[in-house]
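Lecture notes, continued. The same structure-token format from the folding unit now serves as the input rather than the output. Read the line below as a description of shape only.
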């Protein structure tokens, strides 16, 4: 069955209410590699309840709409779906212990022919008590087997390339072999990240790390490099998968009012066209 763009675009998602607990905050931080050195006072702020801080990319794991892509009416080949790109704008910290409301919607589907289809999704999280917008997340999902359905061929956002010069600095970020098994408990239980047989069907030698885990690791690299500043916007395209246990090198370029970045494993670029806005 071909991808059913009309069905997907008309789909309505019920708002998701969540209470963000201190356990949730600490677990997310641990899942992206914070706390590897339990004596590091900078890391400890995110993984210990005393004076606990919320890491700024955490809104991407709040308000997940569920495993709706398994609905056969969508026509999506679930084994061939990977994350394509992610943009996050964080306006304020998630309130620990308070209720937040998250909405999800599919805003566009792009036909890339033999390469597949790209689906754009928007997620917004607000504070239930005040109605204030906390964060807006814009994701692109690459459905690698579902192109040729007759849809438009464009794209919704152009990601700027990193500068054509040597990076100003590079930060090495190790990952643990079980990182995907931990990260998937952030409401993303896609078996691609846990089940060897499923990963093999998708063409991978073993379960791969979530793109959003790699994204989080890159955000930690930026935050550690600029510890006195806060990330308010973070975006990147996912270019190659990371295998849990590999070391991610995050190359950084100082730009006017921003930090451009690219992440790689050896010579393999895994995140590209990255840009962080810091306040």
């Amino acid at each position: 069955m071909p991808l059913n763009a009309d069905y997907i675009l008309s789909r309505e998602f019920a708002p998701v209410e969540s209470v963000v607990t201190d356990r949730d905050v600490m677990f997310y931080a641990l899942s992206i590699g914070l706390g590897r050195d339990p004596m590091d006072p900078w890391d400890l702020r995110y993984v210990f309840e005393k004076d606990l801080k919320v890491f700024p990319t955490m809104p991407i794991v709040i308000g997940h709409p569920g495993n709706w892509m398994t609905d056969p009416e969508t026509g999506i080949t679930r084994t061939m779906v990977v994350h394509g790109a992610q943009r996050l704008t964080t306006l304020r910290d998630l309130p620990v212990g308070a209720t937040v409301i998250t909405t999800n919607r599919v805003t566009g589907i792009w036909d890339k022919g033999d390469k597949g289809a790209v689906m754009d999704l928007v997620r917004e999280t607000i504070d239930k008590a005040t109605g204030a917008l906390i964060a807006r997340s814009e994701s692109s999902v690459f459905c690698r087997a579902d192109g040729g359905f007759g849809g438009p061929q464009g794209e919704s956002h152009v990601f700027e390339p990193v500068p054509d010069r040597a990076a100003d600095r590079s930060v090495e970020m190790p990952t643990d072999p079980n990182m995907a098994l931990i990260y998937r408990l952030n409401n993303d239980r896609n078996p691609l990240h846990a089940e060897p047989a499923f990963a093999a069907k998708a063409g991978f030698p073993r379960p791969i790390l979530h793109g959003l885990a790699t994204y989080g690791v890159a955000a930690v690299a930026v935050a550690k490099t600029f510890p006195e500043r806060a990330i308010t916007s973070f975006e990147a395209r996912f270019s190659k998968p990371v295998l849990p246990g590999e070391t991610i090198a995050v190359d950084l370029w100082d730009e006017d009012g921003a930090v451009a970045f690219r992440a790689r494993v050896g010579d393999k670029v895994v995140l590209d066209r990255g840009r962080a806005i810091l306040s």
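Point for the exam: The chain has a mean pLDDT of 95.
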